[in-house]
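Section 5: illustrative case.
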């Protein structure tokens, strides 16, 4: 605040802000108070400038003119025979919070004060009347929170000034009223029989809320004004978008449009793009607060002028749980709307006006779409075809949707279903279908509601609406968006129509150029089989327009398609694709290799999925090129896998790190030492108390080698003449039925002069794995032949 001036009964008094307070101030023309405040000292002269004066107050029943002292203020005399003053007293500098749903009599919702951004002092209201925080025990689940907070101490008197109070909360199942202690807050009693509180963010602990006591409600002073945050004529708040998912996943950001001082007309934007209020509702809709506000009627046309629309608030899956205050709406030339937004009904918990962006296609989506040929979307396909270990179904929530799509089933055109699809069909537990009929050609782009079948019926929930267009040729395109939860868009098997295809007898032109010199490059780090498979699942190589030959890179280093399977392999999608056979040699020319896949959720299904074969060629310079094509459309999120191996220009037989870890032997157990926690880098030679030892080539029991699962080579060690070779690495679970229950990342191995081996060990991907050593292979080192190259290091672990 700054300096203030005012009038009482036509006589000048004081208040507001200015560089020169004598020329820039607000006015007050009212002096009725329960307790009048007065200066305990004379006013200054003009030449005194700004001075500080003590402020006293007296009660009409008191016997002392200075019954209490308020905060001191600064005063200045101004030309024209008047004075201005300044004060930072929180009794006059607070934000008003009118939240009747925080009363001790309210329950049933979970609204968590740790989600809000608290800053400064607050005065509490109950439908415009004064209310206080409670000073007595509050039951668990009261005040629409998990734990209701109350003051563990009495409210102060005016003469006490600012005091600090302990804040308590009780659990529902606890017998202690102060089982939980939150951060203390400051409180002050103010003239006019109200209090202000410096509320702070509680600790993140199971949904906490500051409670108000309905037994303390009192009428406000008639001169009291509510302090709100000024609004803006243009609102561009990303969190207002109906396409965010904060609500569904527990992230209530704490926005509350009752705290905004709405004034005039507003145009909505989302991240710079024009937006509008939704005139529909979505189950569990989130718009940055707890209750999402939407128009209860369609938008007007330009010719309609200004119209009035009802506003409703959604809560969970109840679209019209609340009724807010109506607003005015107008359509404007240029395809946008403006809204005369008003303060929402304070009875609604944390209401927030919603916005939705709808992009206008710059090109006809009938001519620019992505083909989506996924037979598992068929309305006759039950989800348990893709269900595994009780936790997996197909989910469009995981797809990065972008643009328009046309549906196919095995190459034949189809459309979304317009009628109820039973729960558990379309390869998912929660199928999505259109609630409204498809448009006609003359309708252009239309918006259609999307229903989701659930345990509570055919349209138990509503997902985000989508845009649809009918196209010449009797097909439709859809602008799909990410659903609110794990659900999938359905393709209606009853509406499949044939589409033109290439005659199978057609001979494709032969490539005349050498693919070793005429290729495209791919450098996608997420294709690496050594990446955490769950960091990226959004990629789908069926959506790529493959054309010609490709050379693979990983972070700028030359790579190749994997010949090996790794359990839980996704390579950026859901089904990691790899070659079912070795790479060719230079002398082999162009060869064809089968492509198989493993699913990201399965540890034991290597090769269980089969894609379309590809052509491969080895090139001078020790690299390969591939004629990649669209993978089989029946696979979920297929993605070609890549693997790179660091250059071995320095012979690893002379450049290794020595690992003497006898506790990794196959006859050791009892500890859990996990190799995924080490920083592996380069080549290693294995020892057992200073003697040579090798990795085992046969099955290792679970819990051996002081790990949960011991790792062993699924293939023989090489001979010296073989040079560097790659070997598959297996592991077995204690409860598993096989020696190779799962497959870890492959490693490279080399036989060295002196009857020993070196291994390029890498970080395993999961759950306490350990590289084992085989006690039956122990041999003495040869001191006359054991190399000690300039880069060799020896690390002994005991």
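Designed sequence:
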């Amino acid at each position: 605040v700054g300096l203030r001036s005012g009038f009482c009964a036509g006589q000048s008094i004081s208040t507001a802000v200015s560089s020169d307070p004598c020329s820039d101030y607000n006015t007050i023309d009212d002096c009725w108070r329960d307790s009048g405040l007065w200066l305990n000292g004379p006013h200054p002269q003009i030449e005194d400038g700004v001075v500080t004066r003590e402020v006293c107050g007296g009660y009409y029943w008191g016997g002392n003119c200075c019954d209490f002292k308020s905060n001191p203020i600064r005063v200045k005399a101004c030309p024209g025979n008047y004075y201005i003053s300044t004060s930072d007293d929180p009794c006059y500098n607070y934000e008003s919070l009118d939240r009747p749903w925080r009363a001790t009599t309210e329950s049933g919702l979970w609204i968590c004060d740790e989600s809000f951004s608290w800053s400064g002092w607050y005065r509490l209201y109950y439908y415009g009347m004064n209310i206080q925080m409670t000073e007595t025990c509050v039951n668990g689940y009261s005040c629409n929170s998990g734990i209701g907070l109350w003051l563990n101490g009495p409210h102060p008197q005016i003469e006490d000034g600012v005091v600090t109070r302990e804040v308590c909360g009780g659990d529902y199942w606890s017998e202690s009223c102060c089982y939980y202690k939150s951060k203390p807050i400051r409180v002050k009693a103010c003239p006019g029989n109200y209090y202000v509180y410096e509320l702070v963010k509680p600790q993140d602990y199971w949904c906490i809320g500051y409670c108000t006591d309905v037994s303390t409600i009192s009428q406000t002073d008639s001169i009291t004004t509510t302090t709100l945050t000024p609004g803006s004529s243009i609102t561009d708040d990303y969190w207002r978008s109906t396409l965010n998912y904060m609500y569904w996943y527990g992230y209530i950001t704490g926005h509350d449009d009752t705290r905004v001082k709405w004034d005039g007309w507003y145009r909505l934007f989302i991240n710079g793009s024009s937006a509008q209020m939704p005139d529909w509702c979505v189950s569990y809709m989130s718009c940055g607060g707890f209750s999402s506000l939407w128009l209860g009627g369609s938008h007007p046309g330009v010719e309609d002028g200004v119209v009035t629309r009802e506003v409703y608030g959604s809560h969970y899956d109840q679209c019209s749980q609340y009724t807010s205050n109506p607003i005015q709406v107008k359509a404007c030339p240029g395809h946008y709307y403006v809204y005369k937004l008003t303060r929402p009904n304070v009875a609604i918990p944390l209401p927030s006006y919603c916005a939705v962006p709808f992009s206008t296609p710059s090109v006809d989506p009938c001519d620019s779409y992505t083909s989506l040929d996924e037979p598992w979307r068929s309305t006759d396909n039950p989800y348990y075809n893709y269900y595994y270990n009780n936790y997996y179904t197909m989910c469009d929530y995981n797809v990065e949707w972008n643009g328009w799509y046309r549906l196919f089933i095995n190459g034949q055109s189809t459309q979304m279903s317009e009628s109820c699809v039973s729960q558990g069909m379309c390869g998912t537990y929660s199928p999505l279908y259109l609630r409204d009929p498809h448009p006609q050609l003359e309708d252009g782009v239309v918006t259609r509601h999307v229903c989701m079948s659930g345990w509570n019926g055919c349209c138990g929930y509503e997902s985000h609406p989508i845009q649809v267009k009918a196209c010449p040729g009797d097909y439709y395109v859809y602008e799909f968006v990410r659903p609110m939860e794990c659900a999938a868009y359905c393709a209606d098997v009853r509406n499949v129509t044939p589409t033109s295809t290439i005659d199978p007898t057609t001979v494709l032109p032969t490539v005349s150029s050498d693919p070793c010199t005429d290729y495209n490059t791919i450098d996608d780090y997420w294709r690496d089989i050594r990446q955490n498979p769950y960091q990226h699942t959004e990629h789908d190589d069926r959506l790529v327009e493959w054309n010609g030959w490709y050379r693979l890179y990983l972070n700028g280093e030359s790579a190749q398609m994997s010949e090996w399977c790794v359990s839980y392999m996704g390579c950026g999608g859901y089904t990691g694709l790899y070659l079912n056979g070795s790479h060719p040699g230079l002398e082999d020319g162009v060869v064809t290799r089968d492509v198989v896949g493993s699913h990201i959720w399965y540890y034991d299904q290597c090769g269980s999925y089969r894609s379309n074969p590809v052509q491969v060629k080895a090139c001078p310079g020790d690299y390969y090129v591939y004629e990649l094509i669209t993978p089989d459309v029946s696979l979920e999120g297929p993605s070609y896998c890549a693997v790179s191996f660091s250059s071995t220009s320095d012979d690893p037989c002379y450049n290794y790190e020595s690992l003497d870890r006898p506790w990794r032997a196959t006859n050791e157990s009892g500890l859990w030492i996990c190799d995924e926690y080490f920083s592996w880098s380069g080549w290693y030679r294995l020892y057992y108390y200073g003697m040579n030892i090798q990795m085992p080539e046969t099955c290792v029991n679970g819990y051996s080698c002081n790990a949960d699962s011991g790792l062993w080579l699924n293939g023989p060690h090489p001979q010296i003449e073989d040079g560097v070779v790659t070997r598959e690495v297996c592991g077995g679970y204690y409860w598993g039925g096989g020696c190779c229950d799962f497959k870890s990342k492959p490693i490279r191995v080399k036989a060295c002069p002196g009857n020993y081996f070196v291994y390029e060990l890498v970080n395993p991907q999961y759950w306490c794995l350990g590289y084992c050593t085989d006690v039956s292979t122990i041999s003495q080192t040869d001191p006359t032949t054991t190399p000690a190259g300039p880069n060799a290091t020896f690390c002994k672990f005991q």
